[in-house]
């Protein structure tokens, strides 16, 4: 079985770092590149000691590494930029950014259909968000209106 080549967009953030760690422990998944928003050099060192290309330029990194999948852990605005960039290469996406609007999701759906690639939208991977959601569900019966901001 061929390994899945993954590029992480937002690799130096909290969830990005966890994803780098998790991928480095997998046999069938290979980290081929990573992005960050500020210049931190040209290489990212993984837990296993392997070094992969690190860049602030997603487009250049896609061209250099030819990933099968881009995992995005950025904010909604940066995520949508990544979706548009990845669509030019028909690269599959796993989107962990929270804050995507219904318009964003519609745009993602349109691009995936037009360019024939896949996208999984799974916001709020963060533990804090999961806990807040659970607490809101438990508190909801006691309030007329409840909103998580």
> β content, as a range?
15-25%
Overall radius of gyration: 17 Å
Question: Mind telling me which CATH architecture this is?
Answer: 3-Layer(aba) Sandwich
Main sheet: strand order? 3-4-2-1-5-6-7
**Overall residue-averaged pLDDT value:** 88
- How many helices? The count is 5
CATH topology, which one? Answer: Rossmann fold
Order of helices and strands: EHEEEHEHEHEH
CATH superfamily: NAD(P)-binding Rossmann-like Domain
Distance between the amino and carboxyl termini = 44 Å
Number of E-type strands: 7
Q: What are the low-pLDDT stretches, counting only 5+ consecutive residues below 50?
A: none
The level of helicity is 25-40%
Number of domains: 1
The 3D shape can be described as globular
CATH class categorisation: Alpha Beta
> How would a textbook summarize the main sheet?
7 strands, mixed
By secondary-structure content and strand pairing, the structural class works out as alpha/beta
């Amino acid at each position: 079985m061929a390994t899945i080549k993954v590029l992480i967009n937002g690799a130096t953030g909290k969830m990005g770092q966890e994803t780098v760690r998790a991928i480095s422990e997998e046999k069938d998944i290979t980290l081929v590149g990573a992005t960050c928003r500020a210049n931190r050099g040209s290489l990212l060192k993984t837990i296993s000691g392997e070094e992969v290309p690190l860049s602030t330029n997603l487009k250049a990194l896609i061209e250099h590494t030819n990933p099968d999948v881009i995992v995005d852990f950025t904010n909604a605005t940066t995520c949508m930029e990544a979706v548009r960039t990845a669509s030019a290469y028909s690269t599959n996406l796993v989107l962990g950014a929270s804050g995507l609007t219904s318009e964003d999701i519609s745009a993602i759906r349109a691009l995936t259909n037009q360019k024939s690639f896949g996208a999984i939208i799974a916001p709020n991977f963060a533990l804090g968000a999961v806990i807040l959601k659970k607490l809101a569900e438990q508190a909801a019966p006691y309030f007329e209106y409840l909103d998580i901001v």
